[in-house]
Amino acid sequence: MIGLENCPADPAGGSDDEGFTLIELLVYIALLGVVLAVVSSILISAVQGQGKVASLNTSASAGQVAARSLVEGVRNASGFKVSALTAGGQLVQARVGSASPGGAIAWRCQSWYYSVSAGAILTRSSRTGLVAAPGSDIAGWTKVATGVSVPTGVAAPFVGASSRLSIDFQIAGTGGTKLRIATTTTSSAQTDTTTGPATCY
After folding, report:
1. Reported pTM
2. CA spacing 20 to 30 A to 157: which of 32, 33, 107, 123?
3. Which pLDDT does position 47 carry in this prediction?
């Protein structure tokens, strides 16, 4: 009978043990943890970046709607008036024309109001007469943008000079980021200044 002590040695000269040592296993786990931490931080940053982009897109859309409303209104106006910015807000009034089905120009009084307390730009129109500032009651006014404020260094969101209107405001996104909207427009000279409403400001 042959005893264990007489068994031939491993021809490769190593031991018969296969697998990982405890230290190797701990090193692999640590490396896996580092890789997972890096990948998860990249994914979290991507998701946060996507949220900021979506917020800015929403803000840009709302700001463009407000600016477009003012630009198109003033461009089609026979004239407009910009009031001074007060603690309550600022008013732009215009006599705006639009084509009627018969081809004649249909006039209306339209106003835009920047409300400081509501942080919004509102609009309202009337076919019968001027539209005054709403004060604290904004019922009947349509909000065209919310989260609106005046940028640092800007005296007022609306500045009128002759037939030119300058618009400059910022709009806040959901993440607190602010997007600035700035543009200018000019009212067109109109020959019809008597068809009602003749006075809108």
Report:
1. 0.73
2. 107
3. 82
